């Protein structure tokens, strides 16, 4: 995970998204332990409260949970939840905008599909 301190995105969001990416790519399996907020703060040279804020976003979303006295763990079903969340975001951030622009340009759905297929074949 890389943090960009010059990015407009707050560091705690970058922490949360970086952990999500690690879970989605299998770096952290469901029911496995993730780094503590102390480990994150030392590794990335950030305030522990910032790391905690990022991890708490994952707790609130049901992606990770705390075992008292042991640490934080990936929830069973976290990958499924994250994939659905990211698919919803993908639709909102890209597909809906694509369709809106296509309508302005009078591009048909068949033409859009053709363009997407062309992109995948490259």
TrEMBL record:
Q: Which UniProt keywords apply?
A: DNA-binding, Transcription, Transcription regulation
Q: Which residues form a coiled coil?
A: none
What single Pfam family name could you report for this chain, choosing any that match?
GntR
Q: Which SMART domains match?
A: HTH_GNTR
Per UniProt, residues of the HTH gntR-type domain are 9-77
Tell me the leader sequence span: none
Provide any one GO MF term from the record: DNA binding
Keyword Phosphoprotein recorded: no
Q: Which domain of life is it from?
A: Bacteria
PANTHER family, A to Z:
GNTR-FAMILY TRANSCRIPTIONAL REGULATOR, HTH-TYPE TRANSCRIPTIONAL REPRESSOR YTRA
The protein's name is GntR family transcriptional regulator
Tell me which species this is from: Faecalimonas umbilicata
């Amino acid at each position: 995970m890389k943090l960009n301190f010059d990015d407009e995105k707050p560091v705690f969001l970058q922490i949360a998204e970086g952990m999500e990416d690690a879970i989605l790519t299998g770096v952290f399996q469901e029911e496995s332990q993730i780094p503590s907020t102390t480990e994150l703060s030392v590794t990335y040279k950030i305030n522990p409260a910032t790391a905690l804020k990022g991890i708490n976003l994952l707790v609130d979303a049901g992606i990770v949970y705390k075992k008292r006295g042991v640490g934080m763990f990936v929830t069973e079903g976290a990958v499924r939840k994250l994939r659905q969340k990211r698919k919803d975001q993908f639709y909102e951030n890209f597909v809906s905008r694509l369709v809106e622009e296509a309508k302005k340009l009078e591009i048909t759905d068949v033409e859009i599909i053709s363009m997407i297929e062309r992109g995948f074949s490259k």
